């Protein structure tokens, strides 16, 4: 309650993320793994040097999805925080909107823009990985 660990750790993974990454790893050819095993590579080496670099677009796409989901989450941070200094941006913005009897649209819209801007910047930088992930998802063996 009211700690960074309480806000971050329970939301660190999701069933969608597990399913998505399992699908990515299942789509990789088994021949690569078997060839590395025949060459004497360890299981960790197979994962780190062969399999993981092939699923980087999927990992970054999942990171974008997960970040967007947790960034825009309102109910969980409201339940887990009691002090205003621990509130997330979306929870603080929601409380700021309902705080005053009169509506101040300028500060509310500025807060909304600040809450959207980091996600937009992250998407712009990782757009090529996002598109690569979507483009390879429909391929067959």
Task: Set out the fold topology.
Blueprint: H1 4-8, H2 15-27, H3 30-38, H4 43-54, H5 56-71, H6 75-80, H7 89-97, H8 105-125, H9 127-136
Helix pairs in contact: 2-5, 3-4, 5-8, 5-9, 7-8
Search tags:
141 residues; mainly alpha
Structure write-up:
The protein is mostly helical. The protein has helices at residues 4-8, 15-27, 30-38, 43-54, 56-71, 75-80, 89-97, 105-125, 127-136. The mean pLDDT is 84. Helix 5 packs antiparallel against helix 8 (105-125).
Helix content: over 70%
Number of helices: 9
Uncertain runs with pLDDT below 50, 5 residues or more?
none
- Main sheet: strands, sense, barrel: none
Intertermini distance: 48 Å
The H-and-E topology, N to C, reads as: HHHHHHHHH
Helix/strand-derived class?
Answer: mainly alpha
Number of DSSP-assigned strands: 0
Question: How would you sum up this structure in a few lines?
Answer:
With 141 residues, this protein is mostly helical. It has helices at 4-8, 15-27, 30-38, 43-54, 56-71, 75-80, 89-97, 105-125, 127-136.
């Amino acid at each position: 309650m009211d700690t960074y660990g309480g806000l971050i750790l329970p939301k660190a993974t999701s069933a969608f993320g597990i399913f998505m990454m399992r699908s990515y790893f299942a789509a990789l050819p088994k021949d690569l793994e078997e060839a590395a095993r025949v060459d004497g590579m360890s299981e960790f080496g197979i994962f780190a040097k062969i399999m993981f670099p092939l699923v980087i677009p999927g990992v970054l796409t999942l990171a974008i999805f997960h970040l967007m989901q947790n960034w825009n989450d309102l109910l969980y941070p409201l339940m887990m925080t009691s002090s205003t200094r621990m509130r997330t941006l979306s929870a603080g913005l929601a409380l700021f909107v309902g705080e005053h009897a009169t509506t101040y649209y300028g500060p509310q819209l500025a807060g909304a823009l600040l809450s959207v801007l980091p996600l937009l910047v992250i998407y712009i930088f990782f757009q090529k990985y996002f598109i690569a992930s979507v483009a390879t998802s429909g391929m067959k063996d």
